[in-house]
Amino acid sequence: MSMMLDMRGIVRRFGHVVANDAIDLDVAAGEIVGLLGENGSGKSTLMKVLFGMLPPDAGTISFRGQPLTGHTPAAAMAAGIAMIHQHFMLVDAMTVAENVMLGWRDAGRLLRRKEMADRIRDVSRRFGLDLDPDARVAALSLGRRQRVEILKAILRNAELLVLDEPTSNLASAEVAELLTVLRRLRQEGKGIIFISHKLPEVLEICDKVVVLRAGRVTGRTSVAGASQGMLAEMMIGRDVTAPRPPMVASSPGPARLSVKDFLAPGLARLSFEIRRGEIFGVAGVDGNGQIELVEALAGLRPAGSGAITIDGHDVTRASVAARLTRGLAYMPADRGTTALVKTMSVAENLMLRDSGRPPYGHGLLLTRGPANAKARALMADYDIRARDPSFIAGRLSGGNQQKIVVARELDRRPAVLIAHQAAWGLDPGATHFVLDRMLALREAGAAILYVSSELEEVLAISDRIAVMARGGFAGIVPRGEVDPRQLGIWMAGRAA
Amino acid sequence: MIEFLAAAIRIATPLALAALGGILSERAGVFAVGLEGMMLAGAFAAAIGAWATSEPIAGLLLAPLGGGVIGLAVAIVAVRFRADNMVTGLAVNVLALGLTSYLMRILASGGRPVSMRLPLLTALPIPALSDLPVIGPLLFAQPPLTYLTALGCLLMTLFLNRTQAGLTLRATGENPEAVFASGGHPARVRMLAVIACGAVAGLGGAVLTLQQVGTFTDGMTGGRGYMALAALIVGRWTPWGAAAACLVFGAAEAFELRLQSFGVPVSSYVVQMAPYLIALTVLAGLGQSSKLPAAIGQPLPSTR
Amino acid sequence: MSDAAPAADQTARLQTRRLRLRRDGLGSRIGVALLLSLLCAAALIALAGHNPLEAFLAIVQGAVGSQHQIGASLNRTTPYLLSGAGVALCFRAGIINIGAEGQIAVGGAGAAAAALALAGAPSLVAIPLALVGGALAGSLWAGLAAAIHLGRGVHEVLVTLLLNFIALLLVQQLLAGPLGQPGAGFLQSSLMPRSAWLSHLAGFDVHAGILIAVVAAAALSFVLWWTRFGFALRVSGSSRLAAAYAGFSLARLTWGAMLTAGALAGLAGGIEVLGMHRRLIEGFSLGFGFKAVTVALLGAMEPLAVVPAALFVGLLESGSLAMQRQIGVPTALITVIEGLTMLFVLAATAARR
C-alpha cells in the first residue's frame, strides 16, 4: 500500500526541550491512524510541523508523493491537508452555508447561494453529516459544528483530515455519529489522523495507533489485538506512581472542604470532601468540567444546587470576598488576565486579593510602606526574581509570575487551596518549587484541591486521585492503590 | 400630513446615509463613533467642490473623499495601532470639527469663514410615478441623494448578504480568527471597511450642504452622526432597519417642527429632546438583547 | 527585615511614582505625540500663508504675556482640569465616560439654582453650598448614565453622548422657565447674588476655581494610588477578570467612578457659573466634554498629570485669540491641535500593547 502521508525522522526542539525526537508517522489512503499521548507528549507540535505552522529542525514530509518542505498552512491546505481544531473556526452568527462559502473561491464573488446549498446537501447526504445549509451555527450542537468543519474540508477537496481531540466536547451519542462519519470518509479513501486520549474510541475507530510520550514514539501497533490496558501503559508509563518528593504518609484530620450534591452548568452531580492535611488531586483531559468546578468553588460562577462548606461554614452562595475571609485560596489556570494584572507591579499583584487587610491596607487606605516591606519579604521567601517590588509583573518570566500567585495565595495561610494547572508552562525547577510549596501547605494542615491535566504532577503530590470526565468524577483512588491502566480507562470517559 | 412625512424623509436622509456607512464599519468590527466627523468632513468637501466649480456634481464627487480621509485616520489609529475604537472616533470628530472650520477661514482672509451660497441639487421627479397621488410627490419627486439613500439600502443589503466580500466583512466583525483561517486578511478588511464607511458617511454630510442648507457652517452636523450611530444599533445593523430607525428619529423631529409652527403650548426644548429620548429609550428597551457583532471593538492580534 | 528596608521602600515609592509616567516610556511617547501634532499645526499655519513660529509666539504671549492674561488662561484651564481628572478616573477603570459636557451643564444649573436660592446668605455659606449643589447635580446626571448603562446594558459611550444632548436642552428649558431672567431676550439666568461670586486671587484676574481644581486633581491622584477604591479601579481597568477574582464588584466600581467624575464635572460647571459668567448662560459648556477627554488622554489618565495637560489646552485656547488678532491664524487651529493630539496619543500609547 503506497502511503498518502509519510513523515520521517521529524525533530523539533524548543530551546533545550526536544518536543519531537525523530518521529515517524505514515498514513495511507483509506486509513485512520490514532495518535495517542498525554498533554505535552509532542502531538500538537508534530501536527503543527505537518501543517506548516512550525518548521522542523530535521526530518522530511512527503504527501501524495510530493515533498512538503518550508510550506505554509495555506500550502498545506492547497495540497489537501485539513486540520480540524478543537476550537472550531466558525462564525456562530452565520449559517452553515455562509461558513462554508467564507473565503472559498468556488462560492464566487457574487455568492452562488443556491448552488452551494445544493452541494452542501449533496455532500452532507453522501457522508451522513446531516447538515442543513440554512441552519445558524450558533443553534447547532458542538457535534454538528464539528461536522461543519468536516464538511468544509471535504468540499475543499481535502484528502487528509487531522482531527485534534475531536470527541472531547461531544456527548456520547454525538461521538457515535462522528465515528460513523469517519468510517464513511475512510470508505471514500480519505486519510485521517485521529488525535485522542480516549482509548475506547481509538480502539473502535482506528486501524493503527502511534503512541507518543515525552516527544518519542513509545508504541506503534495495529489496533487488532491491542487492548486498552496496553495502550494506557504505553501512554502513561509505569514509573509515575513513585512520588518524586518522598511524601510523609498523611494523617488526615477532619474535613475542611466539603462539596455535597453540587450541580452547576457543565458539571455532573459532585460530592467529595477534602480533609485537613490532604491533597486531593484531580486528573483528566482538559475540558471535562475542571474550569467549571474550580470557578464554582472560587465563587466566580454561580452555583446550581447542592452545598459547599469550608470548615463547616456554608459558602455555596458566598461572594468571592466572603470566601476569602473563610480561608479559601485559589490559583487560577489563567495567569495572564485573571490571576495577575500584568501591567501592574509585583507589589500590587501580591496585594491583589488582600488590599483591605494589613499590611497592605487599613480601612479604605492602602498602606504602601508596609505593603512594600511585605512584598520584599515575600519576594525573598518565594524566590521571586524581580529588581524591586515596583517591577512590572508582566515583564517577569512565567515561573516568576506564578511564584507571585503562589506567594499571594499561600501567605494568607489558607484553610483550603484550589490550585488549577499550578505548574502549567513552568520549567522543571519552577514546577518543583510549586509542588514543594503545596506539600508544605499540606503539612501545615490545609486541604488542597490540585487540578491538573498533567497526570504525573497529580500523581506526584496527591493523597487521593480523582479522574474527571464529562463533568464528573469517573473514579477516585488513594495514592497507594493507583493502577495506571485504570486511570487511563477513567480518563477515556468510562466509569470503572 | 404629506408635509410632515416629507419633512421626516428630509431629516432622515443624511442620517440614513451615515448609518449605512456605519453598518460597514461596525459589521467589520470597528465602532463607528467617528460618523459625526466623517459626515462633517463630507459636508465640507462637498461644499468646497460645489463652491469652487459652481457645480453641485463636483461637490458630490468630493464628499466621499472628505469622509474617506477621516475614515482613513480611524483605520490607521484604531485598526493598525489597535487603539480604543470609541475614543479614536471621538478624536476624529474633534479633528474634523477643527479642520473644517480652520480651512473655511483660511480660504478667505481676515479670519472669517468664507461665505458660500451653493447651488442646490434639485428634485428629480420620476416621470409617471411622481404623478401618483400622495406617494408621488412624497417618494418620487426627491433630490438625487435621497434616491441614492434608498438605492444604497438595497445595494448594501445585497452586498452584505450576496457577495463574498460582504460575507468576509461580516465574518471579520464576528470572528476574525475564522477569516484568517480561511485565508483572509482581517486587518485589511477592517481598514477598507472603515474607509468605505467614511466615504458613505461623507455623502450623508453632502446631503446637508448640497441638498438642504446650501452652505457650510461650523459643526453643522450637530450630532447627526451620533443619531445615525444610535439608529444603526436600533436597526440591528441592517440597512433597512437602520433606515427605518432614521425615519422614526426624523418623524420625531418633524413632529417637533409642526408643534412649534402650530404654537402648541409645549416647550420647544422639551420637544427637541424627543429624538434623543426616543433613541435612549429604545436602546434601553433593547437592553442586552441588541446583539453586537461578536468581535466589535476588539483589536486584532498583532500578527494578523 | 534589616533597618535599611524602610529607607529602600521610601525610594521605591518615589521610583514607583516616577515610573508611572516613565513606564514603557509613556511620558516620552506622549511627548512625541504632542510634538507631531504641533508640527502638523505648523504645516497648517504655513498653508494659510503665515509664519508658524510667529503664530506660536503670539499664542505664548497671548497666554502668559501679562498678569491679566495669565489669569484668563488659568480660568480657562479650571473646568478642563476638573472634568478631565474625573474622566481620567473613569478611563482608568475602563469606563469611557464622555458625558462631561452634560454633567458640566447640569452642574452649572444646579449651582446657579442653589446660589439664587441662597441670595442674602454670606459668602462663606453661599459659595460652598452652591458648589456642592453643582457637584450634586453633576453626580446625579452621571448617576443616571451609570444606571442606564448598568441596568440596561447600553454602552456607556452612547448613554453619556445622548445624555449630553438632553442635558443641554434641559438647561435651555430651565433658562426659558424657572431659572431664566425675565425679559432678557437671551437664554440666561439673572446675575448671581454678589455673595456667591468666586473671589479673585490677590493681584491676578484669576478666581479661586483653579485652586479647587488643583486640590481636586491631587485628591483624585491620592484616591487612585493610595486607596483601596483606587486600586480596585485600576485593577478593573486592566482586567475585568482579575477584578472579579480579587473580589471587587464591577457595578460598585462603575457607580463610584461615574459619581465622582460627575461631581467633578458638576463642580466645574458651578465654578464656571460663579467665577466666570456670574450667571447661567445657554451652551456655556459646549465642547467641554471633548476637552475633558483630550486632557485625560494627554495626561495619561493620571489625575496629577492632567494638571499640565489641562494647562496646556487652557493656555493654547487663551492665547489663540491673540494669534488670530495679531497674525490672522483662525482660532479653530486649536481644535485641530486637540484632535490631532488625541489621535497621536492614542496611536502612541496603544502601539505598545
UniProtKB/TrEMBL annotation, chain A:
<dbReference type="GO" id="GO:0016887">
    <property type="term" value="F:ATP hydrolysis activity"/>
</dbReference>
<feature type="domain" description="ABC transporter">
    <location>
        <begin position="243"/>
        <end position="495"/>
    </location>
</feature>
<keyword id="KW-0677">Repeat</keyword>
<feature type="domain" description="ABC transporter">
    <location>
        <begin position="5"/>
        <end position="239"/>
    </location>
</feature>
<keyword id="KW-0472">Membrane</keyword>
<keyword id="KW-0067">ATP-binding</keyword>
<dbReference type="GO" id="GO:0005524">
    <property type="term" value="F:ATP binding"/>
</dbReference>
<protein>
    <submittedName>
        <fullName>ABC transporter ATP-binding protein</fullName>
    </submittedName>
</protein>
<keyword id="KW-1278">Translocase</keyword>
<dbReference type="InterPro" id="IPR003439">
    <property type="entry name" value="ABC_transporter-like_ATP-bd"/>
</dbReference>
<keyword id="KW-1003">Cell membrane</keyword>
<dbReference type="InterPro" id="IPR003593">
    <property type="entry name" value="AAA+_ATPase"/>
</dbReference>
<dbReference type="InterPro" id="IPR017871">
    <property type="entry name" value="ABC_transporter-like_CS"/>
</dbReference>
<dbReference type="InterPro" id="IPR027417">
    <property type="entry name" value="P-loop_NTPase"/>
</dbReference>
<comment type="similarity">
    <text>Belongs to the ABC transporter superfamily.</text>
</comment>
From TrEMBL, chain B:
<feature type="transmembrane region" description="Helical">
    <location>
        <begin position="226"/>
        <end position="250"/>
    </location>
</feature>
<feature type="transmembrane region" description="Helical">
    <location>
        <begin position="192"/>
        <end position="214"/>
    </location>
</feature>
<dbReference type="InterPro" id="IPR001851">
    <property type="entry name" value="ABC_transp_permease"/>
</dbReference>
<keyword id="KW-0812">Transmembrane</keyword>
<protein>
    <submittedName>
        <fullName>ABC transporter permease</fullName>
    </submittedName>
</protein>
<feature type="transmembrane region" description="Helical">
    <location>
        <begin position="87"/>
        <end position="108"/>
    </location>
</feature>
<keyword id="KW-1003">Cell membrane</keyword>
<keyword id="KW-1133">Transmembrane helix</keyword>
<keyword id="KW-0472">Membrane</keyword>
<dbReference type="GO" id="GO:0005886">
    <property type="term" value="C:plasma membrane"/>
</dbReference>
<feature type="transmembrane region" description="Helical">
    <location>
        <begin position="145"/>
        <end position="161"/>
    </location>
</feature>
<feature type="transmembrane region" description="Helical">
    <location>
        <begin position="28"/>
        <end position="52"/>
    </location>
</feature>
<feature type="transmembrane region" description="Helical">
    <location>
        <begin position="59"/>
        <end position="81"/>
    </location>
</feature>
<dbReference type="GO" id="GO:0022857">
    <property type="term" value="F:transmembrane transporter activity"/>
</dbReference>
<dbReference type="Pfam" id="PF02653">
    <property type="entry name" value="BPD_transp_2"/>
</dbReference>
From TrEMBL, chain C:
<feature type="transmembrane region" description="Helical">
    <location>
        <begin position="254"/>
        <end position="276"/>
    </location>
</feature>
<protein>
    <submittedName>
        <fullName>ABC transporter permease</fullName>
    </submittedName>
</protein>
<keyword id="KW-0812">Transmembrane</keyword>
<dbReference type="InterPro" id="IPR001851">
    <property type="entry name" value="ABC_transp_permease"/>
</dbReference>
<feature type="transmembrane region" description="Helical">
    <location>
        <begin position="104"/>
        <end position="121"/>
    </location>
</feature>
<feature type="transmembrane region" description="Helical">
    <location>
        <begin position="288"/>
        <end position="315"/>
    </location>
</feature>
<keyword id="KW-1133">Transmembrane helix</keyword>
<feature type="transmembrane region" description="Helical">
    <location>
        <begin position="157"/>
        <end position="176"/>
    </location>
</feature>
<feature type="transmembrane region" description="Helical">
    <location>
        <begin position="196"/>
        <end position="224"/>
    </location>
</feature>
<feature type="transmembrane region" description="Helical">
    <location>
        <begin position="127"/>
        <end position="150"/>
    </location>
</feature>
<feature type="transmembrane region" description="Helical">
    <location>
        <begin position="327"/>
        <end position="351"/>
    </location>
</feature>
<feature type="transmembrane region" description="Helical">
    <location>
        <begin position="80"/>
        <end position="97"/>
    </location>
</feature>
<dbReference type="GO" id="GO:0022857">
    <property type="term" value="F:transmembrane transporter activity"/>
</dbReference>
<keyword id="KW-1003">Cell membrane</keyword>
<feature type="transmembrane region" description="Helical">
    <location>
        <begin position="26"/>
        <end position="48"/>
    </location>
</feature>
